[in-house]
């Protein structure tokens, strides 16, 4: 009897490019600067990218360029959330401490602040030209292309 094994990775073909951005700006300011320099029309998505298992949400901006069949996304990689810290209940004084916890969309790339995801169906996008334009923005520290084969949590980028 023959044994057939199906791998889930075989069914999903990544047709997008991913660019990492290191920048300390707020997400709306970075979206404005990207719109200015790359001639985009990024708009805030009404629903954030939510993950229930970590109770974190990430802002997402999107522009669907229907004439070129390209979808642009700006995704935050960092979610900072204030939570109650654990303390002993048998103490004389009750002090409620709150701690600031940081969650990342892609845990392997904790230093990255934002991702630009470029989904293209027909034509190739010149990543080198886009990265060169991003480097001209003074508020962006650095930007570079990410090899999708090195990311273990690619499923977080499927939305």
Automatic annotation (TrEMBL):
Superkingdom, taxonomy of origin: Bacteria
InterPro entries, sorted: IPExxxVDY_fam
Record-given protein name: IPExxxVDY family protein
